[in-house]
């Protein structure tokens, strides 16, 4: 018995390692997977998201350290930067900036992970067969003498 090769799918067009390669590139350097997928317009979004998270992390970490140092200076009997605040206010403000810093770090990590996932999924979808044999088109269907609008899927077998 002799089997014929599948003629519907051209095996040369599908690169099963492309999604893994795109994800690896994005893990090494954010945005590199998008370059590999030739989706250059996503690179500013990737760096904007990661850069914004890193920026807010640094700002909140600096403020947290300022108020923390002022509290330690006050407890050690030294003059601090915020004499107008009580100890309770210094502790509350420290907690606020620490929470903001930690949230910014989580959002930065999330943006980094989403960058990797986006590169992987985009590489998968680039291999998806989309041609004129499969289409969606708007339709108008009369229901109870009233027009109803919807989508119709057409699949042509040649």
Provide an overview of this structure.
With 158 residues, the chain is an alpha+beta fold. The chain has one domain. The chain has helices at residues 18-28, 32-36, 43-75, 87-126, and strands at 134-143, 146-155. It has a two-stranded antiparallel ribbon. Strand 1 and strand 2 form a beta hairpin. The protein is elongated and about 85 Å long.
Summarize the structure in short.
The protein has 158 residues and is of the alpha+beta class. The protein has one domain.
Characteristics of this structure?
4 helices, two-stranded antiparallel ribbon, 158 residues, alpha+beta
Total domains, how many?
1
SSE topology string: HHHHEE
Shape: elongated
Q: Measure the end-to-end span.
A: 28 Å
Enumerate the spans where pLDDT stays under 50 for 5 or more consecutive residues.
Answer: none
Number of helical segments with 4 or more residues? 4
Largest sheet: 2 strands, antiparallel
Question: What fraction strand?
Answer: 5-15%
Helix content: 55-70%
Average of the residue pLDDT scores: 87
Structural class by secondary-structure content: alpha+beta
Radius of gyration: 28 Å
Strand order of the largest sheet: 1-2
- Count of individual beta strands: 2
Describe the protein's topology.
Blueprint: H1 18-28, H2 32-36, H3 43-75, H4 87-126, E1 134-143, E2 146-155
Antiparallel strand pairs: 1-2
